[in-house]
Specification:
The chain is mainly alpha-helical. It contains twelve helices and two strands. The chain has one domain.
Length: 307
């Protein structure tokens, strides 16, 4: 019975018993920076929402003479999520890129490593404290996303999908920031490496998707084998699921057109169909798996430094 009770409490104990996580959380929420960032984040997202609403309703009135609630709702929701993705992409690395390098700059790393805290717990504590604040930002913006429900055109599953996708993105960016922070003794250098990597992933995968879409369109006009069509589909799906923006756009499109959350039907040129998982599922699995690999790699780097 005691063993079972300990196992049930272990996830909470993993957080509460980690002194780094508690120290980082207390330090972050005591100062004004956390509240300034949260306030600025909501002001930017809220202001952007107002601008999109005014522009959309004005354009709808000038063209049709009435406001299309469904179109306004979908555009508002998509715009808020896109702005959240943009802000999370820049905010998350700022919290994690200084996790290890900041200790070197303040000359506290050696003191920190004299404790019995293992490398894994150190990295986990730094990462958890940053992600906990990002989750706070995402939760704070949900009421702004929910404004779209007043106009229609948006379903509740879209809110869940967007939240999971944004959280998976923040997790990968957070682990990237800590990894580069462990490689560098300067926070500026770690920040630059993290942002360059993040932008390379976003731009590179988007360009690959555009190129593969044009190749697929050309292939549809010509007779290609089923195996080649499968290869193009899988390659295109891989790059789509490596980019959070394309993942969100296609997942939303599939949800609207096919009313499917977890799977969708793809039709080949010969008329046959195949049931495939929705992009947001593959995206989440890929990003969490990559984050786990980077996490392990970061602990290995810290062990090598200590040795």
């Amino acid at each position: 019975m005691a063993t079972t009770r300990r196992r049930l409490r272990s996830p909470l104990d993993l957080i509460l018993s980690n002194p780094v996580a508690l120290k980082e959380l207390r330090g972050r929420m005591r100062g004004p920076r956390a509240f300034v960032v949260l306030t600025g984040y909501l002001i930017v997202v809220g202001g952007f929402t107002i601008i999109i609403y005014l522009a959309t309703t004005s354009a709808s009135l000038s063209t049709t003479g009435e406001v299309d609630g469904g179109t306004v709702g979908r555009l508002l929701f998509s715009s808020v999520v896109a702005m959240e993705l943009f802000l999370v992409t820049f905010i998350t690395p700022a919290f994690t890129a200084s996790a290890i390098s900041g200790e070197h700059e303040h000359q506290t790393y050696d003191l920190l490593r004299t404790t019995l805290l293992p490398e894994r717990s150190l990295v986990w504590g730094k990462l958890f404290s940053a992600l906990a604040y990002v989750v706070l930002l995402l939760l704070a913006a949900i009421p702004l996303q929910s404004i779209a429900f007043l106009f229609g055109g948006v379903d509740v599953p879209e809110v869940y999908i967007s939240f999971i996708t944004l959280l998976a993105t923040a997790t990968l960016l957070g682990t990237l920031g800590i990894y580069f922070s462990s490689l560098s003794r300067r926070t500026l250098r770690a920040n630059i490496m993290t942002y360059v990597t993040a932008m390379s992933i976003a731009i590179g995968t988007a360009m690959a998707v555009i190129m593969l879409l044009s190749i697929s369109a050309a292939a549809e006009r010509n007779a290609i084998s089923k195996a080649a069509e499968w290869g193009l589909l899988l390659l295109q799906g891989l790059f789509v699921c490596l980019n959070p923006l394309t993942t969100l756009l296609i997942s939303q499109d599939l949800l609207i057109n096919q009313q499917q959350i977890f799977t969708f039907e793809h039709e080949f040129t010969d008329g046959t169909t195949a049931t495939l998982p929705s992009p947001w599922i593959i995206f989440t699995i890929l990003y969490l798996a990559i984050s786990a690999v980077i996490f392990v790699r970061t602990t290995w780097v810290l062990k090598r430094i200590d040795d």
